[in-house]
TrEMBL record:
One Pfam match: 4HBT
Assigned protein family: Belongs to the thioesterase PaaI family.
Source organism of this protein record: Rhizobium herbae
Annotated transmembrane regions: none
Superkingdom of source: Bacteria
Gene3D superfamilies in the record: Hotdog Thioesterase
Domain Thioesterase as annotated: residue spans: 54-122
Protein name: Uncharacterized protein (TIGR00369 family)
Keyword list, A-Z: Hydrolase
Length: 143
């Protein structure tokens, strides 16, 4: 049986603004753009400060995109559980992204009572090739 999201795109963006406003410290660069059964997609609009030498988006910026998207994907399916936390995140940087909009789509691979495992694919908007791939594990606090 597929997982169905219980929070809307609007709910998730509002959560980021109210409960996790720290994510917008660099300005509003993260936005939830899609959600559906077992997945969510976020957009990142990096700025020059998110570049590293060579004119590519930095690894820490891509890591943050994967982590925030995994968090939002989980919350979309379990509700606004603010204290769900990352316990592990592994990322592979595959290609050098240009400064420009990126998207990350996360899928839930396993959703248990206490742990969730997710898969994150990051690409330039409109491109098919991935610039990074990550897997994340989240701890879900007891209800």
């Amino acid at each position: 049986m597929p997982l169905e999201p219980i929070l809307t795109i609007e709910d998730l963006n509002r959560f980021l603004e109210t409960d996790f406003s720290e994510v917008h410290t660099d300005g509003k660069i993260f936005e939830v753009i899609a959600t559906g059964p077992g997945f969510a997609t976020m957009r990142l609009d990096p700025q020059e400060k998110h570049l590293r030498p060579g004119g590519t988006v930095s690894g820490p910026t891509l890591f943050a995109l994967a982590d925030v998207t995994a968090y939002i994907t989980l919350l979309a399916h379990i509700g606004p559980v603010a204290l769900a936390v990352t316990t592990n995140l592994n990322i592979n940087f595959l290609r050098k992204p240009k400064l420009g909009p990126l998207q990350c789509t996360c899928r839930i691979l396993k959703l248990g009572k206490r742990l969730a495992v997710l898969d994150a694919a990051i690409s330039e908007i409109g491109a098919r090739e991935l610039v990074a791939h990550a897997t994340a594990t989240y701890s879900i606090p007891p209800r």
